[in-house]
Amino acid sequence: MLKGIPAILSPELLKVLCEMGHSDRLVISDGNFPAESMGKDAIVIRCDGHGVPEILDAILQVFPLDTYVDHPVNLMEVMPGDTVETPIWDTYKDIIKKNDSRGAAAVGNIERFAFYDEARTAYAIVATGEKALYANIMLQKGVI
């Protein structure tokens, strides 16, 4: 156990977050995301018993977001014609606001298949058991 580190962050995940450099990207995926096939060239960390919001909140307590890009946080856009609601995005924006002064302005959207393309180049993917749809989120690391 460490002081000041959220207990939900496993030693494996802490190691990966520490290894990441400026501009490296981390995907926190929902339970439907093909983490293993997208992460063939990435480190995949399983957090199946947890949801994205609790993992995101813990990570952002130790992970600086990139200040050199407009949107260091990106969400997977809802496909045209899909009627899925995404209230979880508001939860994400509240969490981001707690940890980054830009708040919701730091958040962008990426079309679904472009998100998959970007995820294939991520340093790591944290696979959660999140049940909300379109709950995938990509973070770009900044500097301290």
From TrEMBL:
<dbReference type="GO" id="GO:0036373">
    <property type="term" value="F:L-fucose mutarotase activity"/>
</dbReference>
<dbReference type="InterPro" id="IPR023750">
    <property type="entry name" value="RbsD-like_sf"/>
</dbReference>
<dbReference type="GO" id="GO:0062193">
    <property type="term" value="F:D-ribose pyranase activity"/>
</dbReference>
<protein>
    <submittedName>
        <fullName>L-fucose mutarotase</fullName>
    </submittedName>
</protein>
<dbReference type="Pfam" id="PF05025">
    <property type="entry name" value="RbsD_FucU"/>
</dbReference>
<dbReference type="GO" id="GO:0042806">
    <property type="term" value="F:fucose binding"/>
</dbReference>
<dbReference type="InterPro" id="IPR050443">
    <property type="entry name" value="RbsD/FucU_mutarotase"/>
</dbReference>
<keyword id="KW-0413">Isomerase</keyword>
<dbReference type="InterPro" id="IPR007721">
    <property type="entry name" value="RbsD_FucU"/>
</dbReference>
<dbReference type="GO" id="GO:0006004">
    <property type="term" value="P:fucose metabolic process"/>
</dbReference>
